[in-house]
Amino acid sequence: MNLWQAILLGIIEGITEFLPVSSTGHMIIASSWMGIDQLAYTKLFEIVIQLGAILSVVVLYWRKFFDRGRLAFYRKIILGTVPALIIGYLLANEIDQLLDSPRTVGIMLLLGGIVFIWVDQWFKTPQVHDEEKMTVWQAIRIGFWQCLAMIPGVSRSAAAIIGGLQQKLSRELAAEFSFFLAVPTMAAATGYKLWEAYRHQPQLITEKHYLFLLLVGCGIAFLVAMVAIRSFIRYLQHHTFRVFGYYRIVLGIVVLILVWKGILK
Question: How far apart are CA 58 and CA 154, in angstroms?
Fold first, then answer.
C-alpha cells in the first residue's frame, strides 16, 4: 500500500462509515480494484482508520459525550454496545474470513438495497424523536441489530438505523444513535486489532512507513466524516432512505458481475 492508496481509502472510509452503504464493503472493493493484497496490514488498516471517522462523532456531538449529567445517555450507549462486543469476540475468526470475500459484499449490498427501498414504508409512524425519550431496552435491541453488520456489505450504520426505525425512532434519531453506537463499538474493534497486531506482528504498527499510513488514513477519514455526517443528517430531514437502496442495488450488481468476470477476487 502506498500513500495515495491510503489517502483514497481514508476518503472512502470517511464518506461511507456513517452512511447505510457499508464502509467495509467499499474498502474491500477499492482495495481489490487497486490491487492491494488483503494481507494482515491491509485488514488492520481498514479497521484502524475507522477510528478517525469515529472521532468526528465525538467532536460533532461533544456536548453529549462530555456532559457528566447525562448518565442515562452513557448507559444506553454502553448497553447497546455489549451485544456487538460479545458476538464480535466469539466470531472474530469467522468475521476475518468473510472480509476476504467481495462476493459476500455484493450479495449483502444487493439484499440491503432492497430493504432500504421499502424501509420508510414499513416504519411510517415514528414515536421517539429525542434520544432522552429512548429506553435502555430500545438501545439494547438496536445493539443486537447492529451485530448484523459483522457480515461485510451489510453496513453497521444500516443495521443500526433499521434497528432504530423498528424501535419507533425517527429517521434522524435512528441515524444519530447509529453514530453514537459506533464510538465504543468501533473503538473496541480498533483497540482489539491493534493489541493483536502488537502481540503477533508488532512491525505493522511500529515500522515508520506503516505507522505513517495509518495516521494519514485516520486523519483523512476524520476530516471527510465531519462533512459526511452533517450532510447525511440534513438530507434525512427532507428525504427518505430510498436513494441509498437504489445505490446499494446498483453497486451490488456491479460487484457481483466483477466477481463473476474474475476482476474482483
Answer: 24
The grid coordinates of residue 89 equal 469476540
C-alpha of 121 from chain center: 24
Rounded Cα distance, 222 and 54, in Å = 7
Q: Is 128 helix (H, G, I), strand (E, B) or coil?
A: strand
**Chain CA centroid to CA 107, Å:** 17
Domain boundaries, the chain: 3-260
Q: Are 154 and 22 in contact (CB under 8 A)?
A: yes
| Integer Cα distance of 160 and 154 in angstroms | 10
Q: How far apart are CA 18 and CA 161, in angstroms?
A: 10
Q: Which residue has the cell 414515536?
A: 127
Assigned C-alpha cell, 250 = 446498483
Instruction: State how far the Cα of 265 lies from the Cα of 261, in Å rounded to an integer.
Output: 9
55-72: pLDDT as tens digits: 999 999 888 888 777 788
Distance from CA of residue 44 to its chain's centroid? 15
Q: Are 150 and 60 in contact (CB under 8 A)?
A: no
Residue given cell 462523532 in the structure block: 57
Q: What is the pTM of this model?
A: 0.83
243/252 Cα distance (integer angstroms):
14
